[in-house]
Design goal:
The chain is mainly α and 361 residues long. 72% of the residues lie in helices and 5% in strands. It folds into 2 domains: 3-87, Transcription Regulator spoIIAA (2-Layer Sandwich), CATH 3.30.750.24; 109-359, no CATH class. The strands form 2 sheets. It has a 3-stranded parallel β-sheet with strand order 1-3-5. Strands 2-4 form a two-stranded parallel ribbon. Helix 6 runs parallel beside helix 9 (239-276), helix 7 (186-225) crosses helix 10 and helix 7 runs parallel beside helix 11.
């Protein structure tokens, strides 16, 4: 193995240490070479100089080379004895490849643990929402009002806008298919039935999950990272009572209201296209709309909205409590919460579709 020998200065401090690192870099690629630092002429070295020697060792190790220090004596030798363990590049541990069944078992154990945490959070939250207030254990009514404003009032505009635009799109695409048969008026039926059963609840849930679900996950994840959750537990406060229950009850109240506004906005979007683009009279269009509206369709949409409300809050809280790391972990859990929300929205919708179309019909 070839060797590079570098003479160190008489005083090794912040400035001379930086210059020494630059000198090592100027020697070129040290791949596979041994770099020797000659400290025989170094009379004084402070902690910053020692830190630069560690930086040199890391630079040489990155090129798969080896660093060796020689000639140090006196106080310099005493300081080198302290930093020499940091000059040894750690060996890469041998990676153990998991076999198929080991990987499957590990993932199953991981998901089982996460499901257990989610179930415990669900039971704890339902207790503090449905039972504890009636037993006089207290409820944060002030926070509940604030949460309703944040989750509901501030989400009205984006919810109405998205449903209105969706209503325009559905009417536009439907009209292109039925107009050739002279059945354009039935677009009104399609709009009210579609939004009552599916579109208003799903579009509103997606908007709320992207807005409120992400905010819940980010809020609790930040509190977890900053150890505020541990502080609450240390003060004897129940986290589910203090943070989760007001959010669930607020979402249960505001979600059906947002779905109702989404339904009206979707119908308005369909009417906008039907009246202005398709040329129907407003009274005929809205008469057909009212004729097609059924209570069972409305009940289906509102039942979904209640389920979506509980799911969005619980998924956001669950991911917020499971955060690891710093700001990057907060971002990852926020993204994960939104993805899980949308996934579970589809799963819940499939379950409702199965119940209403194959069991209740």
């Amino acid at each position: 193995m070839s060797e590079q020998r570098i003479q160190c200065p008489a005083v090794l401090d912040q400035e001379s240490g930086r210059a020494l690192l630059e000198a090592v870099r100027e020697k070129g690629d040290a791949r596979g070479e041994s770099v020797v630092l000659d400290l025989s002429g170094t009379e004084r070295m402070d902690a910053r100089g020692g830190a630069w020697i560690v930086a040199i060792a890391n630079h040489v190790a990155a090129d798969h080379g080896k660093l060796r220090c020689e000639g140090h004596k006196g106080a310099v030798a005493d300081l080198m004895a302290l930093i020499e363990p940091g000059l040894i590049a750690p060996e890469n541990p041998e990676r153990i490849e998991e076999k198929l069944f080991e990987e499957i078992g590990g993932r199953a154990y991981k998901y089982a643990g996460e499901f257990s945490d989610f179930a415990n959070l669900l039971v704890d939250a339902m207790f503090w929402v449905l039972i504890a207030p009636f037993e006089g254990r207290g409820f944060r009514w002030g926070l509940w009002i604030d949460e309703m404003y944040e989750m509901g009032v501030r989400a009205i505009r984006i919810t109405c806008l998205m449903n209105f635009l969706l209503g325009v799109i559905i009417a536009m695409l439907s009209a292109a298919q039925v107009a050739r048969y002279g059945l354009g008026i039935f677009v009104a039926d399609l709009i009210v039935i579609g939004f009552a059963r599916e579109l208003a609840a799903i579009m509103t849930a997606v908007v709320v999950s992207a807005r409120t679900g992400a905010a819940i996950a980010a809020e609790l994840a930040t509190m977890k990272v900053q150890e505020e959750i541990d502080a609450l537990r240390g003060m004897g406060l129940n986290v589910a009572q203090f943070l989760v229950a007001p959010k669930i009850l607020a979402m249960i109240v505001v979600m059906p209201c947002l779905v109702a506004l989404g339904l009206l906005s979707g119908i308005a979007g369909g009417a906008f296209w039907g009246i202005l683009a398709m040329g129907f009279r407003p009274d005929n269009w809205f008469r057909e709309t009212m004729h097609a509206a059924q209570v069972s369709d409305l009940m289906q949409g509102f039942l979904k909205s209640l389920t979506f409300a509980i799911m969005i809050v619980l998924v956001g809280c669950h991911n917020g409590f499971r955060v690891k790391g710093g700001s990057r972990g907060v971002g990852l859990m926020t993204t994960r919460a939104v993805v899980m929300d949308i996934f579970f929205i589809i799963i819940i919708d499939i379950i409702f579709a199965t119940i209403f179309y194959y069991i209740l019909d």
